[in-house]
UniProtKB/TrEMBL annotation:
The keyword Chaperone is annotated on this UniProt entry: yes
SMART domains reported for this sequence: DnaJ
Membership in a protein family: Belongs to the HscB family.
Domain of life, per lineage: Bacteria
Protein name: Co-chaperone protein HscB homolog
Matches recorded under Pfam families: DnaJ, HSCB_C
Keyword Chaperone attributed: yes
Lineage of origin: Bacteria, Pseudomonadati, Pseudomonadota, Gammaproteobacteria, Pseudomonadales
Signal peptide: none
UniProt-listed PROSITE patterns: DNAJ_2 (PS50076)
Organism: Thiopseudomonas acetoxidans
């Protein structure tokens, strides 16, 4: 049984980068999952069985982390230097934007206008994509660390709002 790897990228045989080939990620995950699946160790020692379960869990966590752009960005920053999750971020412009989006989502919920909700969702997805591009350009530059952390926090917020949009869509479809 192989020992745990140093990071999720090496575990899944991917370059350490924000941009990930999702098809390659899935392929490498499936291949690695076959090799460490606990059923393959049914007749092995108890220690090897435990290691297989641990490796399988680590592999699943790696896959889930790397397939999500937000989780991948956060993971990359934490590999460099752990982020202070409790830190207060002075991002007044984005805070004001958050308030506006929350009000807009509330209005969309009240109006039950599915077409307007779709336009809102498309706008948020475009902004989310722009954050990915901006993060990809700065995450490796130590002098841009503060910006990279701010971008990750923005990603997290937009993911949350997009989740709420999906919930509203489901409610309106019922």
């Amino acid at each position: 049984m192989a020992k745990p790897t140093s990071n999720f990228f090496s575990l899944l045989e991917l370059p350490l980068d924000f941009t990930v080939d999702l098809a390659l990620l899935s392929h490498n995950y499936r291949e690695a999952a076959k090799a460490v699946h606990p059923d393959r160790y049914a007749s092995a020692s108890d220690q090897d069985k435990r290691l297989a379960v641990q490796r399988s869990a680590e592999l699943n966590q790696a896959y889930e982390t790397l397939k999500s752009t937000t989780r991948r960005a956060l993971y990359l920053l934490n590999l460099q230097e752990p982020m202070d999750e409790e830190a207060t971020v002075q991002d007044t412009e984005f805070f004001m934007q958050q308030i506006q989006w929350r009000e807009e989502l509330e209005d969309l919920s009240d109006s039950e206008d599915i077409a307007a909700l779709e336009v809102f969702k498309k706008r948020l997805r475009q902004l989310r994509g722009e954050l990915d591009i901006e993060f990809a350009a700065v995450w490796q530059d130590g002098s841009q660390r503060e910006l990279a952390e701010r971008l990750v926090r923005r990603m997290q917020f937009l993911d949350k709002v997009l989740y709420e949009v999906r919930q509203l869509e489901e409610r309106l479809d019922d």
